[in-house]
Each structure stands twice: as structure tokens, then as C-alpha cells.
């Protein structure tokens, strides 16, 4: 195959303890997957099935790179999230087989232009420009599932801003578990190796100023540091 212009670079994420990187195909995100965060956003978590949105793969921010404060917002928010990296894809994946499709896990930050999201919600418009801006998908080094004692279905997830604790929850508080998310998402679209899924954030989201350092910590995974510049 030859192209009229050079082919774009394949986005990728580092792998803990390895020189090889994880090549990324698509980035999916789950909305409102912790009851306390759904409530803080004004929704009833008991009544809503999971819903999904996407970020472009080239919106990745990796290797603890700084985040340039994005344009067209005055309300940039952090969202600490467990990221699932798929090693196998498929459609209509049964919940019981979903764990076999996961290659690894990472700490992530679903950066959000909250003011643009609020406007999109109010006007019934898509979330793309609130969620999928450049560098909006921050992802720490991926730890292979094989290197973990078990699937991260429980354990602390937290974020700090300039050393102050802002979010603290437990992975067991997710409304939809990782296997359920993979299974349900695979009914919507065919999943494939290289897909990342951001699995939602606990309560305590808030705004970031230029110069702030936000750190996402998840038990057993590499922490994710992002300086807003
Ligand atoms: Mn999120």
C-alpha cells in the first residue's frame, strides 16, 4: 500500500517493565459508572444502563507528559479511571469470557471540558468536543493482566491535586464491572485488540488550574502524573 501522504503515527501506551509499547486502535469510555459520581452530576444511578462515548486514539496523553490547558474552556476537570486494554476482540462477548479478552490495566484520566459538556447536555448535542479534545485521554503504563494476582475488581482508586486528596473510591463500587462493560460494549460494536476502555470515575471531580499536578493512583498499577501547563 502506498499513500498520497505519510501514514499517521500509531498511538501507543507504555507497558510497565517492558520496552515494547501497546498499540492503540480505539478509545471507549463509560459514563457514570460509580453511583456517587452519578449523583454528584445530578442523575439517579439505579435506573440507567451503561452508556458509552469515544475519544480519538490520537487524543492519548502518555509517559506522564504535561497537558497543555485546552482551548475554549474555563472548566477543565480531572476524572480518575481504571483503563482496560484489550488483547482480543469480538462481538457479543459473553460476560464469562470477557476477562480472557483483557490484556492489561492502567490508571487513566478522562480529562473533560466540563463547561462544554454541560452546554452539550443542555442543548442535546454530542459530547465529542467536551471529551475528545487533544491530549484528553491520559493513560499510565499498562500492567499486563498476567502480572496481577487477579482481576482488579476491588482496590483503591484515588486522585490528588497538588498533593491534596480529591477522589477516593474502590473499584468494587463500579455499577458495571469490567466483564459486564466489555460484554455490553461488544454488543454495540466489534471490539479488537488495541482497544482501550476508560471505565468511569468516582465522586470528587473538580477543576484544574494551569500549573496543577494531578496524580491518579490505583492499587497494583503504575500511578499517572499529569502537570497542567
Ligand atoms: Mn469519565
Structure description:
The strands form four sheets. Strands 3, 4, 5, 7, 8, 10, 11 and 14 form an eight-stranded mixed beta sheet that branches. Strands 13-12-16-17 form a four-stranded antiparallel beta sheet, with no helix packed on it. A three-stranded antiparallel beta sheet has the order 9-6-15. The termini are far apart. A hairpin with a 5-residue loop joins strand 16 (213-218) and strand 17 (224-227). It has helices at 35-40, 114-123, 128-131, 178-188; strands at 12-14, 21-23, 27-31, 51-55, 60-61, 76-78, 80-86, 102-110, 112-113, 137-139, 143-144, 156-161, 164-170, 196-198, 206-207, 213-218, 224-227. With 229 residues, the chain is α+β, with helices and mostly antiparallel strands. The model has no long low-confidence stretch (mean pLDDT 96). The protein is built from four helices and 17 strands. It has one domain (12-227): Fumarylacetoacetate hydrolase, domain 2 (Alpha-Beta Complex). The chain binds manganese (II) ion. The site of manganese (II) ion (MN) has 7 residues, from loops. The site of manganese (II) ion has 7 residues, from loops.
> How is the main sheet built?
8 strands, mixed
Q: Assign the CATH class.
A: Alpha Beta
**Assembly category:** single chain
- Taking all Cα atoms into account, the compactness measure Rg is 17 Å
Output the helix-strand order.
EEEHEEEEEEHHEEEEHEEEE
Q: CATH topology, what is it called?
A: Fumarylacetoacetate hydrolase, domain 2
Strand content: 25-35%
Q: Helical amount among residues, as a percent range?
A: 10-25%
Q: Care to count the β-strands?
A: 17
Count of helix runs:
4
CATH architecture: Alpha-Beta Complex
**Uncertain spans:** none
Structural class comes to alpha+beta
Number of structural domains: 1
Terminal Cα span:
40 Å
- The chain-level mean pLDDT equals 96
* CATH level-four homologous superfamily name: Fumarylacetoacetase-like, C-terminal domain
Shape: globular
Amino acid at each position: 500500500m502506498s499513500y498520497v501522504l505519510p501514514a499517521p503515527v500509531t498511538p501507543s501506551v507504555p507497558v510497565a517493565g517492558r520496552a515494547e509499547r501497546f498499540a492503540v486502535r480505539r478509545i471507549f469510555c463509560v459514563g457514570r459508572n460509580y453511583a456517587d459520581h452519578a449523583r454528584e452530576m445530578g442523575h439517579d444511578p439505579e435506573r440507567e444502563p451503561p452508556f458509552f462515548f469515544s475519544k480519538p486514539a490520537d487524543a492519548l496523553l502518555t509517559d506522564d507528559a504535561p497537558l497543555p490547558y485546552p482551548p475554549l474552556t474555563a472548566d477543565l476537570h480531572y476524572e480518575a479511571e481504571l483503563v482496560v486494554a484489550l488483547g482480543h476482540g469480538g462481538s457479543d462477548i459473553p460476560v464469562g469470557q470477557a476477562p480472557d479478552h483483557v490484556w492489561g490495566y492502567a490508571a487513566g484520566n478522562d480529562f473533560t471540558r466540563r463547561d462544554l459538556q454541560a452546554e452539550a447536555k443542555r442543548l442535546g448535542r454530542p459530547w465529542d468536543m467536551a471529551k475528545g479534545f487533544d491530549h484528553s485521554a491520559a493513560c499510565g503504563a499498562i500492567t499486563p493482566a498476567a502480572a496481577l494476582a487477579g482481576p482488579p475488581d476491588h482496590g483503591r482508586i484515588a486522585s490528588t491535586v497538588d498533593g491534596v486528596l480529591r477522589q477516593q473510591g474502590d473499584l468494587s463500587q463500579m455499577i458495571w464491572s469490567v466483564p459486564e462493560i466489555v460484554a455490553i460494549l461488544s454488543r454495540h460494536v466489534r471490539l479488537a485488540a488495541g482497544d482501550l476502555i476508560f471505565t468511569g470515575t468516582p465522586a470528587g471531580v473538580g477543576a484544574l488550574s494551569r500549573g496543577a499536578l494531578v496524580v491518579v493512583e490505583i492499587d497494583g498499577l503504575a500511578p499517572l502524573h499529569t502537570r497542567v501547563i
